[in-house]
Amino acid sequence: MFSRISEDINSVFDRDPAARNKWEVFFNYPGLHSVWLHRISHKLWTLRLKWLARFVSNLSRFITGIEIHPGATLGRRVFIDHGMGVVIGETAIVGDDVTLYHGVTLGGTSWQAGKRHPTLGKGVVVGAGAKVLGPIEISENARIGSNSVVVKDVPAGATCIGVPGRIIMPAKQKTDASGKRQEIAKKYGFDAYAIADDNPDPVANAMGIMLEHVHLMDKKVEEMCKVIQSLGGDVCADSLPKLHAKDFADTGISPTVQKEAAEAFDPQI
């Protein structure tokens, strides 16, 4: 038992930079207290001492603000950060090294007996306020975004965000012929076209693809204008208007990022 407690405490330092020492974690982390009390209540539940198991569970809820049904199965090194408002249902299965943040619900969608709560694989992270509902499976190393509502299976390594949850799989890196987008991203430290492999926002991803398409069209139009001008035509005399930092003044973006964004999308770069 003591080795498991030590293991739980050590696992916190990898997932919470605010943790300073073992004594602080032992006494002041209600997420760990709830897991330790759950182990007691779960053992009583398996011994069919269900009233006593529910009493220990309710005592844990009163002390920590975290409600874990004694019938739920928790793996090793499960970490509930902050924890207030977390609810884990009776038939939920939580794998090893899972991280849950405050306000998370692993709930059911049916009043019928049997498996009605989710199963979380190893290494899953569920963001604050997320609701994972029904007998679904969240596979290994998946990520659930804050305040998402997930009612369908999530494959391994994927990210799920939104209401209802939308699954985002890591995509193959997209490049244009000149490698311009990668140059801009490298220069400014962010993906100016918002279509990086790890971008969690599908709307920004779609806009980024459109912007890249516009950039390619601009380049082709520029090449066509040069050919026409070489043949004596008088086209494309006026250059395209440039973006300036002031164009982003009402967006809430910091002045530094405004300038970088304007330069990043300047067709002359």
Structural commentary:
By secondary structure, this protein is of the alpha/beta class. It has two domains: 2-168, Hexapeptide repeat proteins (UDP N-Acetylglucosamine Acyltransferase, domain 1), CATH 2.160.10.10; 180-264, no CATH class. The protein has seven helices and 15 strands. It has helices at 2-12, 22-28, 30-46, 50-64, 180-188, 202-230, 255-264, and strands spanning 67-68, 73-74, 79-80, 87-88, 93-94, 99-100, 105-107, 119-120, 125-126, 131-133, 137-138, 143-144, 149-150, 159-161, 166-168. The strands form three sheets. A six-stranded mixed sheet has the order 3-6-9-12-14-15. Helix 3 packs antiparallel against helix 4 (50-64). The longest helix has 29 residues, at 202-230. It starts with a helix and ends in a 5-residue tail after the last helix. Mean pLDDT is 81; it is low at 171-178 and 187-195.
Tally of distinct domains:
2
Radius of gyration: 26 Å
Question: Per DSSP, what share of the residues sits in E-state strands of 2 or more residues?
Answer: 5-15%
Low-confidence stretches: 171-178, 187-195
Overall geometric form: elongated
What is the CATH top level name of the largest domain? Mainly Beta
Topology as H/E string? HHHHEEEEEEEEEEEEEEEHHH
Total number of helical segments? Answer: 7
Number of strands: 15
Largest sheet descriptor: 6 strands, mixed
Distance between the termini: 62 Å
The residue fraction in helices comes out at 25-40%
Q: What is the name of the CATH superfamily of the largest domain? A: Hexapeptide repeat proteins
